[in-house]
Design a protein that fits this description.
This protein has three domains: 87 residues, no CATH class; 70 residues, no CATH class; 43 residues, no CATH class. The protein is an alpha+beta fold. About 4% of the residues have low confidence. The chain is flat and about 70 Å long. The site of zinc ion has 7 residues, from loops. It comes from Paspalum notatum var. saurae. This is Transposase.
């Protein structure tokens, strides 16, 4: 728990530094409102909106770094750029699945190479993932493949967005937290009427 807290504090420091840092020196004309964090977020929004590939984004960063007055703080590649904003993103768990799709490769199926129901192979036929520039190799999501197959592409992947992360964010804001607790703390309970889902006996048992 302490390690998680320490990591959280370090991540927060990285975000905080990026929020204070300008893209290049203010004395050389960088507008005050253009913090490095804002610049990174604006660029990543464009990347997602127009589906720029990681390599095209790397080239854009290189060009910006050449163009802007030096010293500037443009990051070297997509991986480094995303790392700065990673504390602000919601976590996603990528779970391999059978291509047909019968099972998820988790729990007792986690280490299997083919589906126990239909026999389909877990990785896509022979395809291998390209190593991302600056990213650690192999990526963690494929660590359940054997060592020599760590860069093999799974036939199907399910993205699981854990609701707990979202709930934590909501409860971190006192105003939202109050609204989230309203149904329990503040709603008027009437024994005769069903005025809220939580009044139902079945919901009360959950
Ligand atoms: Zn299957």
């Amino acid at each position: 728990k302490i390690r998680v807290l320490q990591k959280g504090t370090e991540n927060l420091k990285t975000v905080n530094n990026a929020a204070k840092k300008s893209v290049y020196e203010k004395s050389k004309g960088c507008p005050t409102h253009w913090s490095l964090l804002r610049f990174i977020l604006e660029l990543l929004i464009l990347k997602a909106k127009y589906r720029w590939s990681d390599s095209s984004f790397n080239d854009l960063l290189k060009l910006l770094s050449w163009l802007l007055p030096k010293p500037n703080f443009i990051l070297a590649n997509t991986y480094q750029t995303k790392k700065v904003v990673s504390p602000l993103t919601l976590g996603v768990e990528r779970i391999h699945a059978c291509r047909n799709p019968c099972i998820l490769y988790r729990g007792k199926y986690k280490k299997l190479d083919k589906c126990p129901t239909c026999g389909a192979s877990r990785p896509s036929n022979g395809k291998k993932r390209k190593k991302k520039k600056g990213a650690p190799d192999p990526s963690e999501e494929d660590s359940c493949f054997g060592d020599e197959n760590k860069r093999r592409i799974p036939a199907l992947v399910m993205w699981y967005l854990n609701p707990i992360d979202r709930l934590r964010r909501i409860f971190a804001n006192p105003a939202f937290a109050k609204l989230m607790r309203w149904w329990y703390c503040e709603r008027t309970k009437d024994e005769e009427r069903l005025s809220h889902l939580a009044d139902a006996t079945l919901v009360a048992k959950i």
